[in-house]
């Protein structure tokens, strides 16, 4: 695994770029207080709407807040929300789909129809409804994103489990007397998760975009919070001042692209058909 | 009955629901009764899709029968659940066809062989590591393989691991489901010899499923022939290869390639395909392809009857043929 990871870095430039981008944003978020020159929520009305300069690298917004500092701090919210959403939705969906696929029959039918009910809504609208009903804050936004995202994992996992459970080693475990849960946890899930992992890595980018979209629409975090999506929506009021929406937008873009590059690289690494090359 | 019956199936039926709407019920195993005697190797031959693997899996309760009973040492195991079923698992094991699919690719050989003991909570009560090494020696492998993953092993080695796993809990009967079909011919012979050795050493009973007639002839004491979910002929191995009563068996055996032998018989070609098991023909299931079919065969279904001691045939013409 270590060896193949090294080869992957050498042979797959996009994967490397993705890792570098994501590492950059993670480090920026972790060390934000050391990097950011200003307090991200401090307002200074004397310097409002200033273009990028030596004092304010990315300029200032309509409250005179330093955009560079806000972008650096903003990574904390976007990355945290994106990662946590994917981890929770991925874990829930994986378990749900694995049970549905392994048990089969009417259980599978009922479970899958339930998940399809959620999928039949446009995801953004469903997330907005949940957010509006529950009140919008960071936690509720993530909750809404999880609700919208998990059925995708459940469906993928179910379809993989359907083929994996036909393997003879699953029959062998059952013939030895292993119970359903043991077979599921030891034989079926370990051999099914690789495709879910690939999907999860790619999905981090999507979730960050979803989170930013909701913030842009005014759902999610409350105004002074330096959140990328909300910062972009601030820029709409001052459309001729490109830096207000442009820099946070660039941050969202690079983060999403980086996560997708990693997802693609993971697919190459975990796909058994491609693995021989590494 | 004078012989010691280890496992007995009585009128076993396994049906599958067909794919999609309007599809019929596939009668994979349709009323099979047989005895497996202690210490014997009972071979089962038949074309692909005739239900022989399903029969083997059902005997081990890996597949639920829709009707019929299975007795292991006189005890009905076809309705067992929970702890009783788990206990029964120790006495009947299976060796699979595909050596690369029968081992979990994410676990080492050591973890794979440890599994049976973990499942039955025996890890505290015995020296599992010593037992695993013993198992490996039993199947002729070295201990250095313990830390390997399945994909690092050859097909023969994997199959030996599969055999070791099946033997871990000291079963009384082992179902060999096409156990050597996926191996190279030279490795096949080695594994067959190993199975033979193990049988003598551990007093095992085999239910040996194969489509390879030569292999079955080599290892079996008795042979059963299946066609479309039914047992059509069952006899001593020597008896069957000498005098087969069912026209299907005759056609099957005439298809065995022989090298050099001068007494090569006429090859009997069967017309057509195996009928759809979801919609089997009326009367004798073989009548659509049988060269000797008569009116009676189309109407009434023949039952398995003993035409001579130990030789059972399900054919209307069997009596006349002898």
What's the helix and strand layout?
The complex is a heterodimer of chains A (278) and B (322).
Chain A (H helix, E strand, L loop, with lengths): L1 H10 L1 H18 L1 H4 L31 H37 L1 H15 L3 H12 L3 H27 L3 H8 L4 H9 L4 H24 L11 H10 L4 H29 L1 H4 L3
Helix pairs in contact in A: 2-4, 2-12, 4-5, 4-7, 4-10, 4-12, 5-7, 6-7, 7-10, 8-9, 10-11, 10-12, 11-12
Chain B lengths: L4 E13 L7 E13 L3 E5 L6 H8 L7 E6 L2 E2 L5 H8 L2 E4 L13 H11 L8 H11 L16 H13 L5 E5 L7 H18 L2 E5 L3 H7 L2 E6 L2 E7 H6 L4 H8 L40 H5 L5 E4 L2 E3 L4 H4 L1
Parallel strand pairs in B: 3-8, 3-9, 6-7, 7-8
Antiparallel strand pairs in B: 1-2, 1-4, 4-5, 9-10, 10-12, 11-12
Helix pairs in contact in B: 5-6
Low-confidence stretches of chain B: none
Q: For the largest beta sheet of chain B, what order do the strands appear in spatially?
A: 6-7-8-3-9-10-12-11
| Structural shape of chain A | elongated
Q: How would a textbook summarize the main sheet of chain B?
A: 8 strands, mixed
Q: Name the overall outline of chain B.
A: globular
Secondary structure: helix percent of chain B = 25-40%
Overall average residue pLDDT of chain A: 85
CA gyration radius of chain A, whole angstroms: 22 Å
- What percent of residues of chain A adopt helix (DSSP H or I)? over 70%
| DSSP summary, beta strand count of chain B | 12
State the name of the first-level CATH class of the largest domain in chain B: Alpha Beta
How far is it from the N-terminal to the C-terminal residue of chain B, by CA? 25 Å
| Broad structural category of chain A | mainly alpha
At CATH's second level, what is the architecture of the largest domain in chain B? 3-Layer(aba) Sandwich
């Amino acid at each position: 695994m270590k060896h193949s990871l090294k080869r992957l870095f050498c042979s797959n430039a996009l994967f490397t770029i993705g890792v570098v981008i994501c590492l950059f944003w993670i480090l920026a978020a972790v060390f934000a207080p050391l990097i950011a020159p200003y307090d991200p929520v401090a307002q200074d009305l004397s310097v409002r709407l200033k273009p990028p300069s030596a004092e304010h690298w990315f300029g200032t917004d309509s409250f005179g807040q330093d955009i560079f500092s806000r972008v650096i701090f903003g990574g904390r919210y976007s990355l945290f929300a994106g990662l946590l959403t994917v981890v929770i939705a991925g874990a829930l969906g994986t378990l749900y789909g694995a049970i549905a696929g392994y048990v089969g029959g009417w259980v599978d039918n009922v479970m899958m129809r339930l998940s399809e009910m959620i999928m039949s809504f446009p995801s953004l609208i469903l997330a907005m409804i949940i957010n509006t009903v529950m009140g919008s804050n960071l936690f509720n936004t993530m909750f809404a994103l999880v609700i919208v995202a998990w059925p995708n994992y459940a469906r993928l996992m179910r379809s993989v489990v359907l083929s994996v459970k036909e393997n003879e080693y699953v029959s062998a475990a059952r013939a030895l007397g292993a119970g359903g849960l043991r077979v599921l946890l030891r034989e079926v899930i370990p051999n099914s998760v690789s495709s879910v992992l690939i999907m999860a890595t790619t999905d981090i980018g999507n979730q960050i975009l979803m989170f930013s979209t909701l913030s842009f629409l005014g759902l999610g975090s409350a105004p002074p919070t330096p959140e990328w999506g909300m910062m972009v929506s601030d820029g709409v009021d001052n459309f001729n001042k490109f830096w207000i929406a442009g820099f946070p937008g660039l941050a969202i873009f690079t983060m999403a692209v980086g996560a997708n590059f990693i997802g693609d690289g993971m697919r190459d690494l975990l796909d058994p058909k491609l693995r021989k090359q590494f | 009955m004078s012989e010691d019956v280890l496992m007995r199936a009585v009128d076993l039926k396994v049906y599958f629901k067909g794919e999609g709407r309007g599809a019929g019920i596939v009668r994979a195993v349709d009323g099979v009764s047989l005895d497996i005697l202690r210490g014997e190797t009972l071979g089962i031959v038949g074309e692909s899709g005739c239900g022989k693997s399903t029969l083997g899996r059902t005997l081990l309760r890996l597949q639920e029968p829709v009707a019929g009973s299975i007795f292991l040492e006189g005890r009905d195991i076809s309705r067992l659940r929970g702890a009783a079923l788990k206990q029964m698992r120790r006495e009947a094991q299976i060796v699979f066809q595909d050596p690369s699919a029968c081992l979990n690719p994410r676990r080492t050989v050591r973890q794979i062989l440890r599994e049976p003991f973990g499942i039955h909570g025996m890890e505290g009560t015995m020296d599992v590591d010593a037992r695993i090494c013993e198992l490996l020696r039993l199947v002729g492998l070295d201990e250095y393989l313990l830390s390997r993953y399945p994909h690092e092993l050859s097909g023969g080695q994997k199959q030996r691991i599969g055999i070791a796993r099946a033997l871990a809990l000291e079963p009384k009967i082992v179902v060999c489901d096409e156990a050597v079909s996926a191996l190279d011919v030279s490795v096949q012979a080695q594994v067959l010899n190993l199975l033979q050795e193990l049988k003598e050493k551990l007093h095992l009973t085999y239910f040996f499923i194969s489509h390879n007639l030569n292999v079955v002839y080599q290892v079996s004491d008795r042979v059963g022939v299946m066609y479309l979910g039914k047992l059509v002929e069952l006899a001593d191995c020597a008896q069957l290869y000498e005098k087969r009563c069912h026209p299907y068996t005759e056609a099957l055996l005439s298809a065995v390639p022989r090298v050099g032998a001068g007494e090569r018989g006429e090859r009997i070609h069967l017309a057509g395909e195996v009928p759809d098991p979801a919609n089997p023909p009326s009367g004798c299931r073989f009548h659509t392809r049988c060269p000797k079919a008569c009116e009676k065969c189309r109407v009434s279904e023949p039952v398995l009857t003993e035409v001579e001691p130990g030789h059972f045939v399900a054919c209307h013409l069997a009596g006349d043929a002898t």
